[in-house]
């Protein structure tokens, strides 16, 4: 009887299909880096515009050839005009955004942690946030003069309010279960803030930082178009007044490269500060 059962089991095992490994599906929709696609899109777009301007179905009076813009950019680099305009712009961007972002994160964290601060400052931030910051440029010139301080103040104020909104929203979205767990383990208030609240809010803070720094570049150009003799904004304004499209688009390309550099820097910061998510 036992031999018959063993023979039946052996025959059933031979007829079974081979076991297939199950693919792991617990990646959590994590984005996978695909190298080269972004550069390929840029190159394809530039080649399309180059071909369109040379073929004649894109007028050179509305859109210059990318090759001519690149030649103008090389000429700026060789003559030193690139650094003469880029260094002041980058300095204004760094100083203004550093003040605005640092104060914005500090105020946003306090709004997220303290009910009294939230009750007092949220209505004020809500009133200031929708104001077009470019419209306040003449007021900042009156207050701080036409020199560098008005530019720093405009960029700082423009980055302050979106950073505050993103920060206290990120603090509010921290999982309260983790906070209660820390309290049940006897962690101090400062330890909970440092080890749970701030790391949990960091993804939202960095996402808001991308928006704030993009706004800073926009305000930088607006500030440099008023009372500045150097800077990318002043260069674009001069090129536009002369209807020099090659120089104008070269200035716009510099701003685009600044935006790419800022986005890349924030990406590196995310890799360092958000390693716990991987």
Short description:
The protein is built from 11 helices and no strands.
Task: Please describe the topology of this protein.
Elements: H1 2-15, H2 37-55, H3 66-79, H4 81-113, H5 115-128, H6 137-144, H7 148-172, H8 176-184, H9 189-224, H10 232-241, H11 245-273
Helix pairs in contact: 3-11, 4-5, 4-7, 4-9, 4-10, 6-7, 7-9, 8-9, 9-11, 10-11
**Proportion of helical residues:** over 70%
Count of helix runs:
11
What coarse outline follows from CA principal-axis ratios? globular
Average of pLDDT: 83
Biggest sheet architecture: none
Through-space gap between termini: 56 Å
pLDDT < 50 runs, ≥5 residues: none
Written account of the structure:
This protein is mainly alpha-helical. The protein has eleven helices and no strands. The longest helix has 36 residues, at 189-224. It starts with a helix and ends in a 5-residue tail after the last helix.
